[in-house]
Amino acid sequence: MMKRTFLFLLLLSSLMCLNAEVFRSNQIGQKLEKVPEVLSTGYFIMEEKGARSLYSDDILLWTEYTTNEEGDTIVLRTYPDSSNELRKVYRDGRLVLESEKDSEIRRDTSYAYSDGKLIFSSTEDTAGGKSVLSFLRSSDTGQIVGISDNGSIRFMSSSYLVQDGKLLESLVPGLVVSGEHTVLEDGNIQISEDNGVTSIYSNDGLLLSTVSGNRQTSYMYEDNKLICTESVDGNVRETTNYENGRAKDQYYYEYGELVSHLVFKDEGNIKTLYRNGRVVAVVYYRRDNRTVDRIEYN
To answer: How far is Cα 265 from Cα 288, in angstroms, rounded to an integer?
Structure first.
């Protein structure tokens, strides 16, 4: 393993000398930030001369090659040790064809536009499957007012949504429900969902609490931004604090006693473990937040 990692880093270092660029990335291959050198852990993208490759630690996940043919931009993604391929064709900056092939089946999806707006997509595969997704737009504003998915049509407006002839009510902006709901005395809205979860929303559409079996979760906001959630399940309580829409840290209690405190960090989470109110260990994770980098005992 050490030998493979050494050879991998040596190869990538050689590529860096050929003006390749490296970006920190994620599981779906987005370029998050440029970095000066290859990363030993986590996801990163390497770009060089029309090709870009996504790595996770020292493992190559896929490589994409970009070419131009008769005005079309073609992106071909290949996977190591596999015959799988993903091919995308762009015309005037818009995706017009997508082909996905694995060892058993090939699936082709074409996209059609009108005045620059997507109006439908059609998918066929070598197993005989076919599907069509159409978008219905308003003639005056061009806004989507309906979607046809293989003949199942959903119509929508600012106050209602109709699917297969069934009316779905829009109680407040951003909150669309089906079937029974209850408006409580304080104006909040209680909804019992098909999966057994009961949710309560404020009259302006914010989720306030959920109940699923024995687990009860409360959501707290400041200026309509989520700042904290608290979940209670029997003798277990979990509190998560948020900042600018991202989880900042999390406290875990059993029988009212603090068991752990987890701090979320881009470079790797840090978990402090407690017993009888005292710190017993601090666990440092690597960037993937699965691999333990080190443990410091107190």
So the answer is: 11
- What are the tokens at 35? 């970095």
Give the dihedral of Cα atoms 252, 273, 288, 295; nearest 10 deg.
Answer: 180
Dist. CA 88–CA 14, nearest whole Å: 30
In angstroms, how far is CA 234 from the centroid of its own chain? 30
Non-local CB neighbours of 101 within 8 Å, separated by 6+ positions? 83, 84, 85, 86, 87, 107
What is the mean pLDDT for each group of 10 consecutive residues in the chain (298 residues)?
Answer: 45 54 89 85 88 89 92 93 91 93 91 84 91 72 69 55 45 49 76 77 78 92 88 96 89 96 93 95 92 92
d(CA 84, CA 178): 41
**Residue 263: C-alpha distances to residues 41, 92, 211, 249 (Å):** 19, 45, 26, 4
Dihedral of CA atoms 141, 146, 149, 154 in degrees, nearest 10, equals 170
Structure tokens at 94: 């818009």
Work out the number of other CB atoms within 10 angstroms of the CB of residue 280.
11
Give yes or no for a contact between 155 and 164, defined as CB atoms under 8 angstroms apart.
no
Long-range contacts, stretch 48-52, CB < 8 angstroms, 24+ apart: 48/15, 48/18, 48/19, 48/20, 48/21
| Residue 247 three-state SS | strand
Question: Can you tell me the distance from the alpha carbon of 7 to that of 155, in angstroms, rounded to the nearest whole number?
Answer: 57
